[in-house]
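Thread: "does anyone have the structure for this chain?"

Original post by V.I.:
We have the sequence but no experimental structure in hand. Need at least a predicted one for the grant figures.
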Amino acid sequence: MELIILGSGTAVPTERATAGYLAKMDKPIVMDMGRGTFINLCKSQRREDVEHILISHHHVDHYSDLLPFLQTAIHESRDAPRKDLNIIGPAGTKELFKKFLTLPGMADGTFKIHVKDVSNETFTAGRTR
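Reply from O.Q.:
Generated one for you, tokens below.
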């Protein structure tokens, strides 16, 4: 496993990206995607290979760059199909993503977005458990 820190800043604006990590396992797993982490992700990983995103909690500094990530994935999928996207987070994540997907530019992708709310149960991302 290789762990790349995409951001370790806080909600207070600085030159640092906020929370985000990339775990390179059998499949890349993104954990949180706060402000500034999408650009850092693009420097470290082919974004079309990201199939699993974990959200630790619902503070904006832990998920705000999911919007540009999703918009880019949806737009690019019209020209080059991508694999489905799995988003796993705490209770309320499904509701949050229903709202995201109603925003302009967030429709008409060629892949499915599977959102799962979890609490204490085990889940898998690729072969990682």
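V.I.: this helps a lot. Helices lie at 37-44, 66-77, 93-100.
O.Q.: and The first strand starts at residue 2 and ends at 7.
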